[in-house]
Design a protein that fits this description.
single chain, 246 residues, alpha/beta, Rossmann fold, 6-stranded mixed β-sheet, 10 strands, 37% helix, globular
């Protein structure tokens, strides 16, 4: 029976009395590729922060690799890229290669390291200081750091927001390879519903509560999503997916 790497039960959270998450229950099994989509302010990043213990769940339960969140300690199994790089000290005298190596762990190989730098388009930046890079280059560096340790679970919050189209496609292809060939479990938050439908095996549409959970094909025919979006918007999203597959 597949192991649940992440599961939540009736998870709820408020900021200063304002409800952000309401009764969120879902599970991510080993080998899943889950896309979490939704509008700005829908609670996507807050959900991830509750799962990782960055924010403490106020109601309900979170289990990580089958353990209650409070007792989980094996964080090296998880690669995480936050939505904003506010924790990155760009004045710290550290090179791209040194920062990426911080995420490598014992399972990484030099071939894997070089391949990820190439796919992220930063191999020529390996000796540059992080503070000398553009925001997009910094984002690619932190993406590479999250990937190099071959984590069992990758959690990526809007990872392609600052990437150019070619690097974005390289990144999505890499996540597909990691999931399909290496069995890496992936949770990816994005606004790009049509594109993530090309890669994710499962989708959750979140707007404080779970509006939809299922495959992208089910999303395109879901009466709940038709009621939520209107048939015209739903058709546009699914048509964008069709064009990305062309």
């Amino acid at each position: 029976m597949p192991v649940n790497l992440i599961s939540t039960e009736d998870l709820s959270f408020c900021y200063n009395g304002t409800e952000v998450l309401r009764n969120i229950s879902f599970a991510v099994k080993k080998g899943d590729y889950l896309g979490i989509v939704g509008p700005n302010g829908s609670g996507k990043s807050t959900l991830i922060k509750n799962i990782l213990g960055i924010l403490q769940p106020q109601k309900g339960s979170v289990y990580v690799f089958g353990e209650p969140l409070a007792s989980f300690r094996q964080w090296a199994k998880i690669g995480y890229l936050p939505q904003r790089l506010s924790a990155l000290n760009t004045y710290f005298p550290c090179t791209v290669k040194e920062i990426v190596n911080l995420g490598s762990g014992a399972k990484a190989s030099m071939q894997n390291f070089d391949n990820i730098l190439r796919l992220m388009g930063i191999e020529h930046l390996s000796s540059r200081l992080i503070g000398e890079l553009s925001y997009g280059e910094q984002q690619r560096t932190m993406l590479a750091r999250a990937l190099t340790g071959n984590p069992d679970l990758l959690i990526l919050d809007e990872p392609t927001a600052a990437l150019d189209p070619e690097t974005r496609e390289n990144f999505y292809s890499l996540t597909h390879e990691l999931n399909h060939n290496q069995g890496t479990t992936i949770i990816l938050i994005t606004h790009d519903t049509g594109v993530i439908g090309k890669y994710a095996r499962q989708m959750i549409y979140l707007d404080k509560k779970i509006i939809f959970s299922g495959t992208f094909e089910d999303f395109c025919t879901s009466p709940e999503m038709t009621g939520f979006f209107g048939s015209g918007t739903q058709h546009i999203i699914c048509h964008q997916h069709d064009r990305s597959n062309a």
